[in-house]
């Protein structure tokens, strides 16, 4: 069993050819449960006149399932060494960057500083360089971080189920991976070389993480690489598949838009703010129980405006360079962030808008 079978079923879908009538959209908005074909209709241009109606229903569903709360977390980049040649990424092995990897002592120093902000959830990231950022190294870093945080999530290269199991045993409970684009042919084109070029191995990574015992699994596509309706549809379909196959796992989605980075790559399908809103609303209506993350790739004003439309998780105090939290930001980041607010500023903004910022969503019982 693999999501690839469902991907094949819809692979030849033509987003430009999806044109439901207004009565179809109105019928879908009146339903409690949506089918994949309903989700497809809400992503279509025909749904654009109904954004306000979609927003009202999205607000109601989000409050019903999550209340007026936003979970805050921050990313910690452990290493920017990478063996991939991904055209859209600042860590591209061909980019002439000064590379760095944190020692365990530096990881502990960064952990102390981040924990002092009150956050209990952290996301650790590395480039794809197994010989340097091995599963053993990531497990050792998790061993340091578990002293300071109740939840440790990873956003690293695709691993085997056994390697994910090793990290779960080390205290990692959350997993994030982006398929970047679900367009298999274009995926092959923009991933010029390196292990990430294996489309199927990456596509099946969330399932391996679920089977390995991850408590939460987060997926997404990098918006801007390909037609947003096509990638948006497959992202939602993938999350729907995972929810059905692994009901004990918390399935979430992120909506990252491509940002300026080292290199000359330009997105061929830029996504407007209005299109981003439509994607967010359609996701919330299709997957009412799924968490939705909006990161600091988006600017403060836009993030604030998206808040009530279905968002459940936001990053704060973000840096994309290795060593930034310990004042050793000598290298370039993976991309430019767009919302520089620190944890205190983000919390104050949330409270002002009537939302409760959550620094800790859960506490593991006993050893993990």
UniProtKB/TrEMBL annotation:
Q: Which UniProt keywords apply?
A: 4Fe-4S, Iron, Iron-sulfur, Metal-binding, S-adenosyl-L-methionine
Q: List the SMART domains.
A: BATS
Query: Could you give a GO molecular-function term held by this entry?
Result: 4 iron, 4 sulfur cluster binding
The protein's matches in PROSITE patterns, at most eight in alphabetical order, are given as: RADICAL_SAM
Task: Tell whether Metal-binding is among the UniProt keywords.
Answer: yes
One Pfam family from the UniProt entry? BATS
List each coiled-coil range: none
Gene3D superfamilies (alphabetical)? Aldolase class I (3.20.20.70)
The cross-references to CDD domains, in alphabetical order and at most eight, read: Radical_SAM
What are the recorded Gene Ontology BP terms? thiamine biosynthetic process
What this protein needs as a cofactor is:
[4Fe-4S] cluster
Boundaries of every Radical SAM core domain copy:
68-284
Q: Which domain of life is it from?
A: Bacteria
Family annotation (NCBIfam families): thiH
- What this protein is called in its record is Thiazole biosynthesis protein ThiH
Organism listed in the record: Acetonema longum DSM 6540
